Amino acid sequence: xxxxxxxxxxxxxxxxxxxxxxxxxxxxxxxxxxxxxxxxxxxxxxxxxxxxxxxxxxxxxxxxxxxxxxxxxxxxxxxxxxxxxxxxxxxxxxxxxxxxxxxxxxxxxxxxxxxxxxxxxxxxxxxx
Length: 128
Prior knowledge:
Radius of gyration: 16 Å
Structural class: mainly alpha
Distance between the termini: 26 Å
Number of strands: 0
Number of domains: 1
Strand content: under 5%
Number of helices: 5
């Protein structure tokens, strides 16, 4: 069960690391994701990640925080469907137009978030 959570944490951290080290690469991936089919894939991915976090919350060190993150991810996934391709492309263009510093900042946040999720899912040490 926790293995799935570690996969989620690794995925989020990997996206963040890509944003920090190669912001242009992350933007190129984003441009492929803002197609009509890509929007659905991103929405399903966000909803799946959110449901996984909410499902794993009870066995974590930070159950309330993981539930909140899970709910936010599910809401973001549903909202992705309503944003649509044109608006998503406009958002991506605005984001990339702000320069690599903002992309790196967002990547850094995702990297920290992935690390926090991994930490929250590690078993607690028992007191001796």
